[in-house]
């Protein structure tokens, strides 16, 4: 503070207004902040002191203590899956403090962040609001992941989760459980475990959306306060059928009927530990009830892949990382002519260049079939009679109506876009990457095209012009400034 005051006195620093009264500044500057200094020989000692500090005052929940300092494969998978479901996921583990409120869990009285009432666990009656605030959703995800990756599914019990996260001591049994779960996740690959979880979760979310009921509303005859173990059984039954047996829901109407009131077929332990055999038997019993409504998955159509969680995460991440994401309502003009919008497509390609040029190792997306203005969504509904699906401040419109308007099916339209990418004047590396990695994904009943962008070995350009993104703005890089852009890749 003394250095700052001296800079103000010298005029090298201009003080902003309004200025706090001197007596208030004195009170702030003279406030006593107690602190202690510890010297540590190991990271384990830091974690131990952290946990001891949190033994008094407002205690952290058991799961918050487990997660503190746990950086293994298992804890990483659990953290990332839980964040994706809540909607506070980010593409980077580093987030500016002034952006944290944009993805913080909040309530209806605050005009920012993620409404806790809309988070999947609360909206579907699986966990209470307070349980989500205590990170009980991560406990639930941890139990599910442990079952998914283990050759012999473990019991669902607090002590085992302590071991999996490395919170227990160094007893041989605890250490072995920790090593086994780490090896199991590593063997499968964190990416594959997250992908499998998302596949099953999205199919379950889609099934619930088709039933027009919440999870507990569908399973139970009367309202219940919470149902985490019932969710475990149903999710793991879906996992067994979708991932292990490579099936997909076939007769959805029949599946709704079988899920309706199916809590009667589920036996779960109330409170305390839930034995491994009990959980396996409960899952197998529900598999037997649901299986006849599933069929073999012989469909390799990329448009059949649900991207419900992934797409919603991208929409959420765009608040804090605007430069990495962009959204377009479609490829056609909205003047009623059903004409391909050449300029809009060129802008998509310029945006892809700008995202690729943010820096080395950048990853970003342009989603086509998503409007960010209510007026645009309204115009599409007016022109094509599309039932737009809103999510937060976005409106998912899909591209089916455009394909139909130009006399093509989705496969033909997808090929048309790929050919336009190949015929463009994009730099070769980025052109090849986009043509290979563009995706056609499903968001509920709508198809969205995803331009999947990665930074290339060298700066990218379109027709010799380099572009870069500053927030949501796209700017051409002046010729005199190209050297600065090249330095990012050196």
From TrEMBL:
Task: Fetch the InterPro entries from UniProt.
Answer: Schlafen_AlbA_2_dom_sf
Superkingdom, according to UniProt? Eukaryota
Question: What name goes with this protein?
Answer: Schlafen AlbA-2 domain-containing protein
The scientific name of the source species is Imshaugia aleurites
